[in-house]
Specification:
The protein is α/β, with parallel strands linked by helices. It contains 13 helices and eight strands. β5, α8 and β6 form a beta-alpha-beta unit. The protein starts with a helix and ends in a 9-residue tail after the last helix.
Length: 283
């Protein structure tokens, strides 16, 4: 009798994997195009700026000058690395406070010379290590949020993979926030959410569905301005097409932003973030 019950239970199909988790695996695909791949394709003459002028240079963050269709711009992105050694050296793309301070330094250079700022984000979160906390990780992120909100140049952020917590948001307080179709953008990872909610990281599928962090979910909440379609199966299947689609949208959004005065730009940015993801209750 026990054997029959066991056989019956083992033949039951596994529950379907939520779409959100499928998107998560695509966002984390090891061959997915990383921010630096897009920078090298879309921009010319990229010249990296190193160091935060306070402590060190963070290899998990890259920033510098470049040209976008001939126009001088500033570009910022976090870097994960491809090989095991690169991933370890770059802390798997999780910046330290000096990385965010370097990014802010480049934003201020952009403001001084009236250059648009492009950021590219594929960051599971800021580095939570002891050293990073001792050197002011929270303050560095908070400072970026403040300064980006009032930066007097057009800013465009593109989430290409994972956009996790304040580590991603520190590069995403922008006039336009774009998101690739299979990217995710959330306050916490599904594993972290499941560990907190149910004390069981194995329930990550449930957490992924509940967090509503896929591109279309986030777009409905008003947290991003546009979702950019990807090639079938992800950017890794056709990097050239993925870059072409991003390029087209960056050109369109930059053109629209450059037709605004600085006062109009700042007012629109304030209105956008002030009214993001409203939540209402009834008495």
């Amino acid at each position: 009798m026990v054997e029959n019950i066991s056989a019956k239970n083992s033949s039951q199909p596994a529950p379907p994997v939520p779409v959100a988790w499928v998107k998560t695996e695509l966002a984390r695909h090891p061959q997915r195009c990383y921010p630096m791949d897009f920078i090298q394709t879309l921009f010319t003459g990229f010249s990296e700026i190193h160091g935060d002028r306070q402590f060190a240079d963070d290899p998990a963050m890259t920033a510098g000058m470049a040209r976008f269709h001939g126009q001088p711009v500033m570009v910022i992105a976090n870097r994960k690395g491809r090989t095991v050694k690169e991933r370890v050296d770059r802390k798997f793309g999780s910046p330290d406070p000096e990385g965010y301070r370097k990014a802010l330094r480049v934003m201020k250079i952009a403001e001084k010379f009236h250059r648009p700022v492009f950021t590219f984000i594929d960051c599971a979160g800021a580095n939570p290590g002891l050293g990073a906390e001792e050197r002011g990780q929270a303050e560095a992120i908070a400072r970026n949020l403040l300064e980006m909100s009032r930066l007097r140049v057009p800013t465009i952020a593109t989430i290409t993979g994972e956009g996790g917590s304040g580590g991603a948001l520190a590069l995403a307080v922008a006039d336009r926030v774009l998101m690739l179709e299979n990217a995710i953008y959330s306050v916490i990872s599904p594993e972290g959410c499941a560990s907190i909610m149910w004390k069981d990281a194995a329930r990550k599928h449930e957490a992924a569905a509940a967090l509503r962090y896929t591109a279309n979910d986030v777009k409905r909440l008003g947290c991003v301005d546009e979702v950019i379609p990807e090639p079938e199966g992800g950017t890794q299947n056709d990097p050239a097409l993925a870059a072409k689609r991003i390029d087209e949208r960056l050109v369109a959004h930059l053109d629209a932003l450059q037709h605004l005065s600085i006062e109009e730009l700042l007012a629109a940015r304030y209105h956008k973030f002030r009214n993001m993801a409203p939540f209402y209750t009834t008495a």
